[in-house]
């Protein structure tokens, strides 16, 4: 089963602190959405509102067109996967996965059959008689996912489920989550502060900051053409170049670019991978290497451009040759798309 979700003007306050401010968001049935943002931005509070663990101060939550705002968690068509797994250590994996069905009054044969089906879905069909302590962190997270899916929720809520895993396991589980979601078609809403994780798994990313939505859209659009300076900075490294807009052009320390927009002080954002030796775009001119590090797929280099004293740029250069501190490079920046924000 799956269902759309509507968050209609949700706000929430913890005494004087406003954790959520007029959140409005429609999530399609079967969509994989990530709520992304720094600690304290409101993403976990919003997930708690969706799960029924927190009552919003204002607004409504609708699932499948039904107002569930004041329903208890057990009465909602949602289940939640937590970062700490929350498995029962004394139970077998079969009984852990079937626990929700047991609470719903399902008979032993039915819940065992469903538990085996869900364990097979997450690749643990031969481990039904094991207990959680015999599993790795990634395997325990798979069991938690199987348990949440066993009750056939319309919406699955994931609260930083991969945060406790190492990098290799985290990437493996990202792939598995995406594959499982596509297979079963359930609406997934996933909280994370990891930008790479959000881009790897989501159909749509919702960037949050200070209790409100800064930007939302497909990962590629959010990364390449963010709608706010905060979203641009949070969605990975970016170089902020001071500029001035004239209405028809953008004046930068490196030259002038055509640009239509309000006149005034502005910031041009350039991703590190947009900067390199290839010709075209905006000529940055000679730049002295401050330091460089090899990252496998690229060299991450800090450079000091002659044209902008005091400005340090980050460039991701080809991995073939690591430049040395003091080397002089001649660099250009791709400016498609041109990402410019007016200074407030």
Number of domains: 2
Q: Biggest sheet: strands, sense, closure? A: 6 strands, mixed
Order of strands in the sheet with most strands: 6-7-8-3-9-10
Order of helices and strands: EEEHEEEHHHHEHEHEEHHEEEEEEEEEE
Catalogue the unreliable spans.
none
Architecture of the largest domain in CATH? 3-Layer(aba) Sandwich
Helices, by number, come to 9
Q: For this structure, what is the CATH homologous superfamily of the largest domain?
A: P-loop containing nucleotide triphosphate hydrolases
Q: Structural class of the helices, strands and pairings? A: alpha+beta
Could you tell me the mean pLDDT? 93
Helix content: 10-25%
**What general form does the structure show?**
globular
Do you know the CATH topology of the largest domain?
Rossmann fold
Per DSSP, what share of the residues sits in E-state strands of 2 or more residues? 35-45%
Main attributes?
344 residues, alpha+beta, Rossmann fold, globular, ATP binding, transmembrane transporter activity, transport, ATP hydrolysis activity
